Amino acid sequence: MKINHVNLEISAVRRSQYPTDNKPEFLLVGRSNVGKSSFINTLIHRKNYARTSSQPGKTQTINFYLVNDEFYLVDAPGYGFANVSKPMRKKFGLMMEDYLINRPNLKNVFMLIDFRHKPTSDDLMMYQFF
Ligand SMILES: Nc1nc2c(ncn2[C@@H]2O[C@H](COP(=O)(O)OP(=O)(O)OP(=O)(O)O)[C@@H](O)[C@H]2O)c(=O)[nH]1
Ligand SMILES: [Mg+2]
């Protein structure tokens, strides 16, 4: 597929901020630092449009990238890193749960796993949840 245009439409922290133009959404999930934002950059042929960091916990909001005016690639906070504070983890968890459970536009979830290691217990929990 040829990607002609990508725009970060909104960085949301709650349901009322999600896009309202009713397009399909495709979400990346995975543990913090696994490379979700990097993978989005690879898909859209951009260097650091979705911001990445060697420190886990970089993505803190649900970011909706509109591709070719047709669908959204959705980047979100990762799970499972102890050095993200406990209250923050709880906040991300609730925010993600709300999006995952209540969003009809969400058509597919892509789960990234670091194949250099066995899936973590958080990976397994997430998988069971799906
Ligand atoms: N070796 C290697 N490093 C990668 C790969 N993909 C991403 N990285 C590096 O891993 C680090 C984390 O990448 P991010 O894309 O920010 O990870 P993320 O999953 O979005 O992390 P959070 O936003 O914290 O949830 C960065 O330093 C990237 O350069 C990969 O395929 N191989
Ligand atoms: Mg990220």
Summary, kept brief:
27% of the residues lie in helices and 24% in strands. It has 130 residues and is α/β, with parallel strands linked by helices.
Describe this structure in words.
By secondary structure, the protein is an alpha/beta fold. The protein has one domain (6-129): 3-Layer(aba) Sandwich (Rossmann fold), CATH 3.40.50.300. Helix content is 27%, strand content 24%. It has a five-stranded mixed sheet with strand order 1-3-4-2-5. The chain is globular, with a radius of gyration of 14 Å. The model has no long low-confidence stretch (mean pLDDT 94). Guanosine-5'-triphosphate binds at residues 30, 32-38, 52-54, 56-59, 77-78.
- Can you count the helices? 3
Say how many strands there are. Answer: 5
Overall 3D geometry? globular
> What composes the largest sheet?
5 strands, mixed
Average pLDDT taken over every residue: 94
Molecules bound to protein: guanosine-5'-triphosphate, magnesium ion
Reading off the top of the CATH hierarchy, the class is best stated as: Alpha Beta
Helix content: 25-40%
Largest beta sheet: strand ordering = 1-3-4-2-5
Structure classification = alpha/beta
